[in-house]
Amino acid sequence: MSNSNNLLTIKDLYASVEEKQILKGLDLEVKPGEVHAIMGPNGAGKSTMGYVLSGREGYTVDSGSVVLGGEDLLDMETEERARAGLFLAFQYPVEIPGVSNLEFLKASVDAQREARGEEAISSADFLKEAKAACKKVDLPISFLKRGVNEGFSGGEKKRNELMQMLLLQPKLCILDETDSGLDIDALQVVAEGVNSQRSSDRSFIVVTHYQRLLDYIKPDFVHVLSNGKIVKSGDASLAQELEAQGYAWLQTEPTEDELEG
Amino acid sequence: MTEQIDKALAREYEAGFVSDVESETFAPGLDESVIQRISKMKGEPEWMLEWRLGAFRDWLQMEEPDWALVDYPKIDFQAISYYSAPKSMKDKPKSLDEVDPELLRTYEKLGIPLIEQQMLAGVAVDAVFDSVSVVTTFREKLEEAGVIFCPISEAIQKYPDLVKKYLGSVVAKKDNYYSALNCAVFTDGSFVYIPKGTRCPMELSTYFRINEQNTGQFERTLIIADEGSHVSYLEGCTAPQRDENQLHAAVVELVAMDDAEIKYSTVQNWYPGDEDGKGGIYNFVTKRGVCHTNAKISWTQVETGSAVTWKYPSCVLKGDNSVGEFYSVALTRGRQQADTGTKMIHLGKNTKSTIIAKGISAGKSNGSYRGLVRMAAGAEGARNFTQCDSLLIGDQCGAHTFPYVESRNPSAIIEHEATTSKVSDEQMFLCQQRGLDPEKAVSMIVNGFCKEVFKELPMEFAVEAGKLLEISLEGSVG
User: Fold this and answer.
1) What DSSP assignment string belongs to chain A?
2) Mean pLDDT of B93-117
3) Is residue A24 a contact partner of residue A229, using CB atoms and an 8 Å limit?
4) Separation between Cα atoms, residue B332 and residue B364, nearest integer Å
5) Has residue A258 got a pLDDT over 80?
6) What is the DSSP string of B33-45?
7) B437 at the A interface (CB within 8 A)?
8) Which chain A residues are within 8 Å of B426, Cβ to Cβ?
9) Sign of torsion, CA A19 A23 A24 A27?
10) Does residue B1 register a pLDDT over 60?
11) B151-172, pLDDT tens digit by residue?
12) Nearest CA of chain B to the CA of A94: how many Å?
């Protein structure tokens, strides 16, 4: 029985990409307001987890269940999951040339408002909010007029993801290796942005390979994902242990990469 | 994603209705007697008939072009009717009150109310229905500025000197197979004259509607911008949804005298045929403008309709320092085929041309860009910049680019850039992950791709063009 107080309940989840099973019995429970860090070696299934939860095409669920806010997540289309409050911050945000950030963001916000039965936000109000969000993530206002991620540096792309999160106000944010490719200053900006959004009704799943990000975003729980399932869970101190000792000692069975290698 | 997109591409054609209007239509067939009848219906002077017959005799000697990357069954020119007009138009209604309400309703349904009070302020419309012009709005207001905007059939009678001087001066009668046919059988279209030093006080626009079955529409447009004048003109076109193919072979000629500027925009939405390629309009069009000294002609086109498109709006940059521009968005889906582009012929010194062509192919369609840039020996210091970008949606469509470049002057500079890209899974996923449904996502990505061209359209029409793309892509994703 899953706890009905949970925001997210993943039970015994098996999922494949191109016929290759990546998630093999994943269990995770996230309560409102909690921050969970998912760590693990390359190829463990960390990014796959984010894609499966958000319903990316090509990622097939073989068995198991995922409930978000009392609703069967796996039964929803990608955009419905987003409207239900799921937000994925991408590891490599893609460019959409010619579509201004502002236009993209307003369309996203309006789509989500519409799903909640609310009216579209007025352009003036939205511009005000967007400008404030820009400031918060330390991007110049001119970025609102630029094409989505078009010609942005790695750090600017990540901050742009964060800006989207600020405007969409999701219930569950999955940050997929948001720290990759960031220098320490950018990392701090992103972490501050995330921390400012922590609240009792918003949860985070922070996926990362390194402990570094967790120095800035303090998790309530740390889980180690290895070979498609969680092999160890603990509090923030587990992350430091992992940093010191690596992942090898936790692996119960060899990963496929190791078998192939 | 391909599957999603294919499903989503099953759109509805909103302009596909038929108006219940009693028409007088010629029996199918084409010979000199048909041309004589057309000329007589229009009450034309003898010289016009002779001009038509000369073109017809030329046409008989010519061959249908086959170099374009389009494939369609041979057209039986004897199976087409060359004239069709609502009976109510026979008495030449003097005012809107006398026009058949069903005709007015047709345009209203298409979003073009012809009652002046209801119209977009600042846009005068000539509404052409099959072979006749139904009404031309705001004529008095334009006349105050000295601007002539009327059906070409009327111009032939009222302004014979201007018509004689310029008709066929830019596109020669024998220019090509379809232009020769058009010269022989054209029925209506618009005539515009902007006097010296005048800035046309309104946008001018012609809306072409094909209604009758088995008829061809052969429109003829002539725009003359006298020295130092300025005009912006827009044409739109739709047709009912029918299983048979219909031929539309138009000729548009633009004359920009010294220091004049003509901006010509097209939103082409002829019926494209169904998913399997049944029905739809064959759109075989010749459009060309000549620029005298310091003049500028700018073509902007948004092509979303027609089963087969064969169209190359061109500029002859005759005068020194003249400027030619071509901005194009061509969207093909289903089984549509489009072979479109431009010709920039640089004759004068320091002439400049810009070509921005955006092709979007979806479904099982084929889109081709075909463009010629020619620098003549006298084109000292001439410049061209060409950018053509193709966007593929799905993996069953084709995009092709055929640039032709000829330079006979070593000081001329020609630049050509081309890209091909796809609407990627990553882009779709990002949009959907933020809550957008797949249709909205595709239309947003496509609109972004077309932005450089849309910004060239007059404001009211840029919005319309964006919406048109949205409708066209409805169902592109599922």
Assistant:
1) ---TT-SEEEEEEEEEETTEEEEEEEEEEE-TT-EEEEE--TTSSHHHHHHHHHT-TTEEEEEEEEEETTEEGGGS-HHHHHHTTEEEE-SSPPPEEEEEHHHHHHHHHHHHHHHTTPPPPPHHHHHHHHHHHHHHTT--GGGGTSEETTT--HHHHHHHHHHHHHHH--SEEEEESTTTT--HHHHHHHHHHHHHH-BTTBEEEEE-SSSHHHHHS--SEEEEEETTEEEEEE-THHHHHHHHH-SGGG-SS--HHHHH-
2) 73
3) yes
4) 9
5) no
6) HHHHHHHHHTT--
7) yes
8) 94
9) negative
10) no
11) 999 999 999 999 999 999 999 9
12) 6
Tokens, residue A6: 């949970």
Joined together, the tokens standing for residue B214 give 């088995």
What pLDDT, in 10s, does the model give residues A168-206? 999 999 999 888 888 888 888 889 888 999 999 999 999
Element (H, E) at B288: strand B280-291
Cβ–Cβ contact B427 with A under 8 A = yes
Q: Is the pLDDT of residue B205 over 70?
A: yes
* Closest chain A residue by Cα to residue B452: A98
User: CB of A43 within 8 Å of any CB in chain B?
Assistant: no
Domain residue ranges of chain B, discontinuous segments joined by +: 2-473
- Per the CB < 8 Å rule, is B433 touching A78? yes
Instruction: List strands edge to edge, sheet with B383-392.
Output: B132-136, B123-129, B203-209, B230-238, B261-268, B296-303, B323-332, B352-361, B383-392, B413-422
* ipTM here: 0.92
The architecture in CATH of the region A8-260 reads 3-Layer(aba) Sandwich (3.40)
- Please give the average per-residue pLDDT across B27-52, as a whole number: 93
Lowest mean pLDDT among B132-136, B228-232, B404-408, B471-475: B471-475
Domain boundaries, chain A: 8-260
B406 versus B17: which is more confidently predicted? B406
Better-predicted residue by pLDDT, B337 or A244: B337
